[in-house]
Amino acid sequence: MEAAASYVKDGDDLRDTELRLGLPGTEAPEKPAAPSTRGSKRALQEDGDMESRAKSRPLEVDCGEAPAAKTQIVGWPPIRSYRRNSFPPRKVEAEAEAEAAGLYVKVSMDGAPYLRKIDLKVYKGYKELREAIDNMFKCFTQGEVSRKEGCSSGSESAITYEDKDGDLMLVGDVPWEMFISSCRRLRIMKGCEVRGLRTRQYS
Amino acid sequence: MTYFPEEVVEHIFDFVGSHRDRNTVSTVCKAWYQVERLSRRTVFVGNCYAIGPERVMARFPGIKSLSVKGKPHFADFNLVPYDWGGFALPWIVAAARLCPGLEELRLKRMVVTDDGLELLARSFPNFKSLVLISCEGFSTDGLATIATYCRGLRELDLQENEVEDHGCQWLSFFPDSCTSLVSLNFGCLKGEVNGGALERLVARCPNLRSLKLSPAVSVESLNKILARASHLVDLGTGSFAVDHRTDVYHMLMNSFPKFKSLRNLSGFWDASPCCLRAVYPVCTSLTVLNLSYAPAIQGDDLIKIICLCFKLQKLWVLDSIGDKGLAVVASTCKELQELRVFPCDIYGAGTTSVTEEGLLAVSSGCPKLNSLLYFCYQMTNAALITIAKNCPHFTRFRLCILDPGKPDPVTDQPLDEGFGAIVRSCKNLRRLSLSGRLTDQVFLYIGMYAERLEMLSIAFAGDSDKGMIYVLNGCKNLRKLEIRDCPFGDIALLKNVAKYETMRSLWMSSCDITLGGCKALAAKMPRLNVEIINENEETYEFEENLSDLHKLEKIYVYRTVAGPRNDAPDFVWTL
Known about the structure:
The complex is a heterodimer. By secondary structure, chain A is α+β, with helices and mostly antiparallel strands. In chain A, 32% of the residues lie in helices and 14% in strands. Chain A contains eight helices and five strands, in the order ααααββααββαβα. Helices cover 31% and strands 18% of the residues of chain B. In chain B, α6 (114-123) runs parallel beside α7 (140-149), α8 (195-203) runs parallel beside α9 and α16 (416-425) packs parallel to α17 (440-449). The longest helix of chain B is centred in the middle third of the chain and has 11 residues, at 322-332. Chain B is globular. The two termini of chain B are 45 Å apart. In chain B, 50% of the residues are buried. The mean pLDDT of chain B is 93. Classes of the chains: A alpha+beta, B alpha/beta.
């Protein structure tokens, strides 16, 4: 047992100077970050052997939280490439190319000089989404209100979105999960257009 | 037995079916060896580099059926570089020269070229059946030559191959005189399909029992085909999504009821829930159902169809079925023998869907379950122990917990006890894939109890060399061992070198094996090929200068009587 332990430990020291054949991206993070899935009991029992395993292990994620930004390990999960290529990962929109994590959609506000982008996956529901959007566009809604002719209450606004069929929809009608999978971009409408939308909703 | 004339001995050998038994019989004495080799009709070569094709054909000149496998299993997951090897041509060339009576060829994970297919098509006048699984390197042109020259072709079965699309005309190359097809599977083709040619082909083959279409075949085409092929037993649909307001849809709804013999259904590429309703009339007689390529079908729709499938023996689904759907499987499919649950959302946030609960339900409701492939986000020891008790008949048990190294979420313990229970209880277990957090202990159990185990796949498991040593010293029927990302090093590799000659192959990647260790292995065991796969271009030019302590990324060790192979690419060194 000791022989095995010391063998591994020696290997550990040599790691710093060796030519690794690791593929790009398979380098594990610094050792302290690694054993986050293991309970505190295990951490006490572990010796250097465990730490040295961190090099080959992937980024380990706490069991509790949803791993939104997983490091992709070559050949994992073990699914045949044929099947993997048969359908692209769900929920990855055209706008969110590079990272598989994050569902970024553009958010525009009528009258604002520039747009924002948010990651829909980060929010758990409509309430959080509204709060986030309010925060993001706070700077544009304070102060002056652009009064368009014919509008009696210029500060009304509604959050709408464009769905995958290209239709303009009011946010909040469908279950959150369904919304996330069909939302292409968000638009905060202001002024009388909003009332028109509201009226249509009730008629 | 030596007093019996050869014809009698040969007749007795006719009853000796399995490869292993025939191999054994041939070693008894020279007379038996001779009789056996001349009367052998089927040969299976599990590793194309274990023996040269000429030697096989020379020994068995009368073979009618040949099966050959090429790349190691982990090639399925992109761990083996593209041009590593596994070429089919030498086998086709040798067979053309030495076994012209060949009728059937089955290749898995091999590189097949159009030239090879043409040679195949022209060389065997009685050729009846070509099965290619997970192969690559050929195009639809190669298929056209098969269609043209293989008169009397009965089976063309292409499963999950990478086929280059050179146009849809290959189907038209089946001559009008071709009426012998019994099985046609081109589900893996990506390109356009000539619907008319397909429909005419189906119409003139009255013995057609198995037909699997590619996603490019429209529902309209399917309707026409179904109208002419009511004796089908096995159907893989093409595209399966049309607007419910169309005539095509209504025709589809009426296409299935007349199929009295249909037992297997698959395909359903892009299937929509409303189209899926079309198959309800045949569900009660289905024995095989594969919905694992239909991500648009959600749990509730899956449940609606499964409720009807009470004769089902084999079910492949996506994990959108959920634990709830699996409970329905458990209560409905009492004949179920094989279950595969694939993940819908590989990169996702673990928002689906199946947990240990689903598997528990199936294990308790389906007493005949013997083969499992299950992808999930979590598993507990308690569940595995119960599953082991419920299902002692597992022959294949592959569990993939998607988070590598994840422990039991309830107790935070490794899954050693759970898998230990599986190997202890399932005495006939032949294939096992492990996942989750595992220590050396699980390997101790495997070595002790898994007597019939033939194939073991390990990833992100173990603590030390002891783990691998337990396995090598234990499992006496082990044939294939594949390991990735485990802390096993030279000590484990070299502990029981004789074992490797009793096995087909060993794969190790991202472990702690060094060049020195491999050199030692190769020196001790000259009848093994110890291949080092080195994709790092910076180092492979300097192979002589690499120290023995250099850690190796990938090694593949296999027994062979053919010596080091002569078709190895630059990045493969055979020691």
